[in-house]
Design brief:
The chain has one domain (about 1-95, about 100-130). About 80% of the residues lie in helices and about 0% in strands. The protein has helices at about 1-15, 20-30, 35-55, 60-65, 65-90, 105-115, 120-130.
């Protein structure tokens, strides 16, 4: 039981501070029907698990040795997160989910990949905790 609790708390410590992914899933849950929200959460979980595995297997070392990759991740990822935050701040609130315009699965997966893999905080946290 002790090992289970240790793993659970480590998982919560790893996932809780990653704000962009959480905001993406929460925003989808608030604006989309339940089925789409669950699919979105599953896609984000898939990309989050793939990032955690990459951090565990040493993506931090690759980033550390490539200055171009560091600049792209920190600069480009930061700009992407600012753009996504801008979109969320200026989004229109819809209380009627029947008027929801459903994004394609490809759009959902692309955005989930972006908020996971291009999030500098997620990569740094994962590398420090798991790498």
């Amino acid at each position: 039981m002790e090992i289970f609790l240790q793993g659970l708390t480590m998982g919560l410590a790893y996932l809780a501070p990653i704000g962009a992914q959480n905001l993406f899933v929460i925003n989808t849950a608030l604006t989309a029907p339940l089925g789409i929200a669950l699919v979105t959460a599953g896609i984000v979980a898939f990309f989050d698990i793939s990032l955690a595995l990459a951090c565990f297997w040493g993506i931090g070392l690759v980033i550390e040795h490539s200055l171009l990759l560091q600049k792209a991740l920190l600069g480009g990822g930061g700009l992407i997160l600012i753009y996504l935050a801008w979109q969320l701040l200026h989004a229109q609130v819809q209380t009627d989910t029947s008027a929801y315009s459903q994004p394609t699965l490809w759009q959902t997966a692309t955005l989930a990949f972006t908020v996971t893999w291009f999030n500098p905080q997620a990569v740094i946290d994962g590398t420090l905790m798991l790498g």
